[in-house]
Task: structure prediction
Amino acid sequence: MISYGKQSIDQSDIDCVIEVLKSDWLTQGPAVELFESHLKEYFGSNHACVVSNGTAALHLVGLALGWQKDDIIITTPITFLSTANSILFSGSQPDFADIDHCSYTIDPNLVEEKIKLHISRGKQVKAVIGMDYAGHPCDWKSLRILADKYGFKLINDNCHALGASYYGNFHYAVKYADVVTQSFHPVKNITTGEGGAILTNDFEIIEKVKSLRTHGINKNVKEYSKNEGPWYYEMVELGYNYRITDFQCALGINQLKKLNHFIEKRREIAFKYDESFLDNDNLTIPKSDNDIKHAYHIYPLKIDFSEIKVSKRTFFNKLLSLGIRLQVHYIPVHLQPYYQTNYNFKPGDFPVAEDFYAKEVSIPMFYNLTNDQLSFVIDSIKTNIK
Ligand SMILES: *Cc1c(COP(=O)(O)O)cnc(C)c1O
Result:
């Protein structure tokens, strides 16, 4: 079965993990800080905090930014549940702005419309979470201008775009957003099994997330209210156990070294797909302009199912029977029963996202995809849209 995404693990990854397993530290040891320092360098950020997964990273960001009940946070409907759920974790009010029909990322003009609407109701938007869908950066220049104009915090849920660049800048994520989150789930561009990270130039945010990662325990002896002895520690706020292990971090360090190489392969696959599907009127390939370097976490192909008179379900099952497991990214979050029931969203609220959902399929995109598999996928798609 050829899946839409898969990790790539080689002997050097295995050796790095074994080395840590034989050491004194399985968790809370030196590999954690080392992974953080490599991530800081890669992202050009002053600070980094690695955590147990990308959802935990988003949760801690909301807590560190002090989101409260009734705060309004805007994100894109075309994202994984975690992005929007991180708003609910804080009891805040989720809202969405529709996507741009070319880049499939949140449309800054519609973000501004939403902000004005909330202002007209006497409410303020506290934060906007952009998501670099499929590995295509959002329009960060426009989002930054809006953040400064209306005074909200800007978050980049960058889980798809590790390895992307924006106007030639590989450090764009931390440059434009106040906080950036990552996930290292096996389908992502690099993996630690489960894992995530928070990157920022803001010292207060990083102090806060590092404390909340480990139960809200203050590690700074100088700040203790008293000191009863060498065993003493103080909990000063309510935190969690969102730590990641040292052997996962060792894997992350080794994977990060291979990231650029991984991305080159993903781009080769994407160009092959582009070339194969470009001149078919019923297919739309993902946009990749010269001003960005697309990281191709996924390859979202739009198929005009109403034109080809084959349903998405039939197409999906046909490819499954051929041994190709496609995926769909994503069911628009506002259409989830939980969001419709509890937050009054309804079909039709975000028409560009809904049209995108009707057409999008994510086709196989991973480092170890062979040329034979690639040709087979292309042929299978072409034969089944006729
Ligand atoms: C994968 C992903 C997450 C969640 O990451 P986990 O590590 O699986 O918790 C959040 N947002 C986006 C956009 C993702 O793709």
The two ends are 23 Å apart (CA to CA). The longest strand covers residues 125-131. Residues 53-55, 79-80, 82-83, 131, 157, 159-160, 183, 185, 196 surround pyridoxal-5'-phosphate (CB under 6 Å).
